[in-house]
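User: Hey, my collaborator sent me this sequence without any context and asked if I could get a structure. I don't really work with proteins. Can you help?
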Amino acid sequence: MCADRRGIESIMRKFGNIVLTLTGVTAAMALCCPMLVVLGFVALIVPGLVLLAAPTVFVYLATTLGIQRILPTKIGWAAFPIAPLLALGLGWLVMQPIRSSAISAFRAEVSPDVLPSQPVTLSGNVYVENGELYRSPECDYLCTMLLDLPGVESVTVESTGPAGRKRDPSVAAFALVRTGEDAEPGVFPSNPGQLIRKHPGLMRRVKGNELRQVEISLEADWALRLSGVERIVQVEPTPAEEADWVVRLVSTHNKEIPRVERVEISRTGNDVQFRRSEVRHFVPGNVFYLGFDLQMAVGTISGASFGIGGSDWKSSDQRIDLEPTFLQAIEVPLLAELDDTRERLRREVQRAIDDPDASPARLELARRWLSLFFFDAGPDDHQLIARVVDDQRVKDIAGPIENVFSKGETPIELSTAYARRIGFDDATETERSQLAKALSLMPPGTFAKPDPAHLAIWTRPELYEQAGHFLSRLADLDAERAMPILRDALDHVSTKDNWSQRRAMVEGIRDAYASLGPAAKQDATRISTLVLQRPSPITSGFNDVQAWRLTLARMGVSLDDLPFFPHSSQQQINRTKTQIRDRLQRIQSEI
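Assistant: No problem. I've predicted the 3D structure and written it out in structure-token form, which is a compact way to encode the shape of the chain:
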């Protein structure tokens, strides 16, 4: 009888080992490639369930078999029910400290909401801790709105996001003051029109197709105000403990701690007048198991993984957006009618450009006006835009003019104004590069009869170093006039050490040679020599070398005479020649 029992126990153990092996292999597959679980559900559901459960089943089965082996042999058959129960108990025991710690962390962050019956009225010095700000504090739409509230004297902004804490100054303060009209421009707010998009109450009052226009009108209104007797100026920050009001926009996204979204408005002395919170935290389950997590991105599954099983605890079923929640909690004055502010701004820009004695603050209106375009400048705007660009009193237009015209759509009427701006002594490198790109994309032949301002760019290295793309338009001239300038530019390129300094010039020169075609063939030998030179002043890699080969082919150089390096194999050479021939045929078919 004992022998039979031992035989049955041996069979049971062998069976358990086989099941453990099969489960372990399945678990390893699921853990190493979690997306198999997803495919299993998509296929027949059952394979997905098996793969999903396999890691947890393997852990408990291995634990059960291990416990059976250490149990006394005298308990016999009782070991089979006892071992699984002990395994489950061990799974419960292991999870209790982790679960208790997570629950304590969650409860420590939960604070009761404080929802007053009336909107909070802010005044005096306001301190804003912004957990969604990941850059140096600036006077954005939120700061601007607060400064516009009656009774608010200053706004101190603290960036509590990671970028602000690690790299940038984390605190800055601003005030809206009254000055004379001739005062310096001061600080212009960043995107003040965004208030419309962020305030739910204002958003509901604007029709969808009017939103952009209302946003622009609000920004135009601020531009007009800040060119008059009002200025936003940077002031000494008020410490949080000395501020009349403290606004905390808390946002934590660290997976190791509870995720907190909280808006809190308090008076001096931590007298909370408003608070809304949303706390979320992952709390492990009562009993150990391996959970499955899917990562979603743009409506698709971007990844999957296994981890300790549990659930997300939430303090509220309603998610909150920090800034909109804050805006709804305070008393924001109604906006005035803004229908004509953009047109009024345009008229003021016209007057400022016409006035030789216009103050810097009034001239600043020109930059603000340019920044309101979104690839929608019409023919009626072109003349004034040209005058703004051509006025040296208007400083640094690189940012404002970026979205005035679509790529390749800059009107020819602006070609001279753009060229003159490039020639200004105080023009920035970004301005010159940006305007030169716009000039280079104008229709062929635009510069066949160049203005002195265009010639100045082509012949002054200090200009075309930063406006290199405009060198491509030398092709609008006849070869006799263009070639000497291109040769001088090639000589100048060779004097620059860094490819970043040479790149725009090289691309402009290369495009000019390509457009001139066979008329420029006399320079082919020199270009081939420069391509093969090491280090080469006109290439920075294979793509540049290949682009020059195509250019030489367009200049009339035969495929057999294109430059190739001595170490190139015949197979590589033949493949490259085929590529050049095919590209050349496509270009010729498009002409």
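In plain terms: Residues 3-109 form one domain. You can pass these tokens on to your collaborator as they are.
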